[in-house]
Batch of 2 targets.
Target 1
Amino acid sequence: MDTRRQVLQGLIFSLGGAAALSAFDKAQANPALAAEPHGPGFYTPDERALVTFLADAIVPRTDTPGAVDAGVPAAMDHLHQTWASAKTQAGHRAQLAAIKAQLVRSGGLKLEALSELDAAAFSQNTHWEYRAVKSLIATVYYLSEPGATQELQYEPVPGRWIASAPIGEIGRTWAL
Amino acid sequence: MNNEFDAIVIGSGMSGGWAAKELCEKGLKVLVLERGRELSVEKDYSDMLSPWELPNLDRIAEDELKTHYPMQSKSVGYALHETTKQFWVKEDEQPYETPQDAPFEWVRGYHSGGKSLMWSRQSYRFGPQDFESNKKDGHGVDWPIRYDDLAPWYDHVERFAGISGDRDGIASLPDGVFQPAFELTLPEKAFAERVNKTFPSRRVIAARVAHLTAPTQEQMDLGRGPCQVRNHCHRGCSYGAYFSSVSATLPAARRTGNMTLVSYAIVQAIDYDPATKRASGVRVMDANTRETKTYSARLIFLNASTVASTLIMLNSRSQAFPGGLANSSGQLGRNLMDHFGGAGASGDMPEFDAYYYAGRRPGGIYVANYANITEHDKPFLRGYGFQGSSGRRGWTGNRPGLGADFKQANRTPGSWNIGISAFGDMLPNYRNHIRLHETKTDKWGMPVAVIDCRLGDNELKLMQAASKDAFDMLTAAGCVNIHSTEDRGVTMESLTSPGNKIHEMGTARMGRDPRTSVLNGWCQSHDVPNLFITDGSCMASSAVQNPSLTYMALTARAANHAAQLLKDGVL
């Protein structure tokens, strides 16, 4: 974090936006903004185990961190505890229950069963409960620090606009 | 505090900031009344946070969203987030009414800088034809000014605000004082060329946006720096790179030493003295303490935003003006307009997939209006412009695959996609109005607004044509997988509601004749010469261009004229 902070401060000084500095200090000083979720969770142990299985299977650790490394299950728990309405909470639990039932029918929380479900969901345009949860896992992962900065790329302060360049010169998908 | 000032400016937003700056720089002691709190860059801006530092993906808790922002969650959902919610008015706390079948999306920002903090920064001059359209087709009243009257003031405000754009040489969308534009992407360049080849009268240009790309010394002296291409604008910009009252006009006013800004000052009415025939004072209630107070000054600028300024005027009743201050014409509150949409198209251009971009550009492309300007075969009056942009789809969870394959697939962006959506010119119409509720008041005792505004047959025909044009232009550009409003057709029900474009205007219109208009060619009340109104309410027609730049130019022009009248002893 110190490196990024120094880089940012250097940029800000060179560009003359003095007000930016104090705002950045404020962001850094507020631990709540980046805090890990804590306290009693939203998920039951079974649900948490399912979400962890899904996150790890969909986005495993490879040459970059995976969804579990990035704290995706915990962030999803926090999201549903603090953001979701009762209706959304119930809907999410129902999604998880449907996914669980589907997996159990094909042999349990195993990669083979999930592969089958994933293939069916996209080839037959069904299993929307699975597709919704998969999308959420992807969203939370790619906007996490490891997902955005190690798996993909993210520039906090691009500082310039390159309208179009050969993709090899730009690199991977932008996280944002 | 001394309650005597040379001038009072009601509102500190897009136009109020300009009134304050210009009047202060002319040496007047100016009181700025702001109904909300004073924003602080340090406390209120969240633009330095990275995506993973935003709580809950920056989503506002669903119950909170439903309670406080039910309408805005739809109309400004793109900018209404957990870290920006402080900029948007809680709807349940600031009610207004509309007919059940005619919603009006009244979007508000009650804090220093007003909506200039949250605007989308598109900045276009009106063209000569826009000041002549009312006269030509007989809707509304003739503008009392022409393009040439305003042109030097466009120069003036562009030079200070900082507008990036290309010199495109389009007579109906005049060039201005520009800083370098953000370059078009390859698909946008191809789109522009191909559209122009098929439709020679149509021009696709770089969006003109109020972002510094080559700041002047004057801009840097105000603490503003160049745009960092982050596109976090709706969280505020700590670099002051986009124009707002907070980044530009209020600091300029403040450095003169002539400005006093009072926060939490809700203006309830403007007093009128029948003996002098002048506005004599501004009645204010403190939003927190409910303490009331009257401020007086020789000159009053009303810049509270269209609906709010109109409410203040309607609520300023006296024996001389029983229907609201300066309303001898009966036009106050009438002729409400907004731009409207509901037509657009998007499509893919995979032929450019060997290319990608870097940076998050805060603008895109613009298609200048050609309807009834260079193309005259239209079954409707007036026209439309299009805003658009291109980009490549990013990562998605909505794709098959698991594990390393899934990750690998997301490392390459999806195809280029380009889209445009229309902004239509709404005819001025007496029936579209704002009035005071007869019984209901807000928590400060002010009658709440009743807004009754409907789109008509011309608007429908216009947007149906825009929809067809959007599809045709995407097709001409060689796009594939085109989705457009032609798929389902454009109907009255599918048009955006008035208010949705946040360009509400027209309820204290300028005109030549005091019997049919509220303001003269200087945005000065026909009836009450020391009262000027220079927010959107002064507009005689809407044109198709985003109007903020025109509000700025009209305000600067009016303020300099008013200061001269004071100096000459006329006021």
Note: The longest helix of chain B spans residues 457-476.
Target 2
Amino acid sequence: MLQVSIYRYNPETDSAPYMQEFQVDTQGRDLMVLNVLELIKEGDSTMAYRRSCREGVCGSDGMNMNGKNGLACITPLSEVVKNGKLTLRPLPGLPVIRDLVVDMGLFYKQYERIQPYLQNDEPAPAIERLQSPEDRDKLDGLYECILCACCSTACPSFWWNPDKFVGPAGLLQAYRFLADSRDTATRERLSELEDPFSVFRCRGIMNCVAVCPKGLNPTRAIGKIREMLLANAT
Amino acid sequence: MSNMRSLSFDAIIIGGGGSGLRAALELAKSGKKTAVLSKVFPTRSHTVSAQGGITCAIASADPNDDWRWHMYDTVKGGDYIADQDAAEYMCSEGPKAVFELEHMGLPFSRFDNGRIYQRPFGGQSKNFGTGGQAARTCAAADRTGHALLHTLYQNNLKNNTTFLNEWYAIDLVKNANGDVVGCIAMDIETGEVVHVKSKATVLATGGSGRIYASTTNALINTGDGIGMALRAGFPMQDMEMWQFHPTGIYGAGVLVTEGCRGEGGYLVNKDGERFMERYAPNAKDLAGRDVVARSMVMEILEGRGCGEHGDHVYLKLDHLGEEVLGKRLPGIVELSKTFAHADPAKEPIPVVPTCHYMMGGVPTNVHGQAIMTDADGKDSIVGGLYACGEAACVSVHGANRLGGNSLLDLVVFGRAAGIFIESALNEGVDYLEASESDVDAAMKRVTRWNESQGGESVPALRAELQGIMQNSFGVFREEENMQKGVGQLAELRSRIANAHLPDKSGAFNTARVEALELDNLMEVAEATAIAALERKESRGAHCRYDYPDRDDVNWLKHSLYFPADKKVGKRDVNFAPKTVDMFEPKVRTY
Amino acid sequence: MVTNITNFGRSGLSDWLIQRVSAIILAVYTLFIVLYLLFNPGLDYATWSGLFAQTWMRIFSLLAFVSLAAHAWVGLWTVTTDYLKPTGIRVGVQTLIILAIFVFLVWGIQILWGA
């Protein structure tokens, strides 16, 4: 029997959140955390969480599992359970809508703020824009982000200033476009980022790197943005 | 009813996957008042799981490539019930749509000359099947769907598309004339039910793989658009045609791209034999998906399956080397380690054919307009209703879709629907407004669930439905078993009609969403079952023991399932492409 | 872009650069003082004040003081914006910090040149 403790909150019935205990029979299988939630939901249909692809590419089921952010669908119990106990909480630092579902509004707003789309003021050719494999390689480790928010909600700087600090996820995408040889808005993008909050609130804590379920490295991208800002301004 | 809030749009697009976002982008650019209504944040849609690529004759790998060759492959792959005017449109417009994606920023992998990387996929040929294997699938490593979906979402942000994220469409609203004039939808975050009025309603709701117990599909793929259209009385086309992808990870169902075989991987049985050489001597592991899936099941049934129970085969990739795997198939390496506990660089991946794609759907023309047939069997247009992507049956995939054609389908026809709706709106659309009773009709089932007092639980009924479909409507089908399945489904339908929703709360009530989804699964499953029973032949993905041959005399036709009387009719396949000679049906070998 | 008027260099980049350059100056100054103390074990007042009587040492010390002031302001400003969310309290504390830094700076200059 696996002992699972889950953060519960229903705004319509609960005045305050609480932790609820469940006993789950895993039949000795090394299930994913998402499977455990599904088993619990079969018995208690009120349990709310997001899920979609169940294979770690859609970014729906980011949550805090035994203290560490990650995706429930690709986190096996063997990796996360300590002393037969599993504690599930919503992603920290964002308002809770219900149970494990958080309001991602602030997170998405920061993503939108970095203008996450290619900008190129030259007329498009009749075929594709050419890009050398070396230039394309620069996007590896950047474009794979799934917007699960595990990184930004593990970042103390984002907790303190979610309205002003872009956060690791948004900055990774900011660099994805700065690094793209096809993008011509580098100067404008940089000028949007040079204030003391957007990028510079990063203190290099590297929680983002520790939790990213896709193995990406936002801290490195932030360092690269700083280098570009410096090169641009001096 | 009168106190229900309503929203008005020129066009409402239900579904935020690839086709919905592509249609929305077109409409947002036109300045029409458009909204995308999606039950998940758009980048969580199932398009994100597409791996291998988007097939299109952009003449990068082969400068002499020709969209007509692609069209030939598509028509042949679909076992000749793909509409040839639609296949022609998709293959000829494709390059434009792919280049647009690249201009939007999609991070395609590249060849040394800077052009988009293309890899070989199943069923691809040069020179109308005579020039050997082609490499026509444009790829961003093995994360093409992810890259495509994010690019489309990003460009919708750029063009200020309105999003109703985490809203769930419940049912279509029809006016007294039978035109679709909007839908009833629920804001999942609050539980508020809203009347969404629109001059054009686009079903871009994707597939419904969750009718099967084992599927590569996301948990959200519950055929919501198909369910809504069926309840509104509209017919569905070719619903018996379900693609079983050869390589779903054994046990987990997670997809392993055909690109693995495109890059040189192959399937082996328990003796280590590359068995596809026996079934498809020329194309081998890159034959059509239906052919490969059947061959795998044959191997397993004849006792040459792998593992303790001999119930799967192996996909061998280790000979490709870590560098190729890391560069071209990094996502597969990750998925295999996570879900099969196998490092493809060292050991083979256990795989088994797994439900993957719905070739059928809402019958449409190339502009995305939904079609129904009148009493004489003639096509007529449904006012106000459009469909694109997997939810639609244009039909470009016929009885079996080729790998990489789904992403092309959704961008080409999402775009086409957007372009057409813009011009239709410009010309002026004037439908009768829905009456209160029209709206009530669309509210019926959500009201039913909300008032349910007791009955069986949703997860149990869903599992039963998935079991029936898995057992009776899988890779191989047969009359008696399907009869049994149809009977079981009929009985299940009445039980679902009395099932219970215990949680009546408003805020983010996922139990209510799952209950509403179950209704849709039921609709799709029954349409599939009845159409499958009716088509007495074997064609493409529909393979029957009792009718092992293709029957072009009786069944070179689309099937058309009518929900009102649960009868199956036939619709002519289009054999009149505009700029090329039609492809005559031939015996399909690889 | 997030706009603000109370940070030191008016841009995150210059703040960041100031923080790093001032840190280097402070590190060098500290290292110098430590080494000086190590190599002069029986240090008496005359030697110590002799060191500070030299112009280069006064300029070096002034540079370190100014660096310390800038470094402290950038750092403490950041801390106040992280933890003090009500604007009134934050501005009040920031004013006090500026005042304190100013006093310490003037005092330092006085000590260096006042002897």
Note: Chains C and B do not touch (no CB pair under 8 Å).
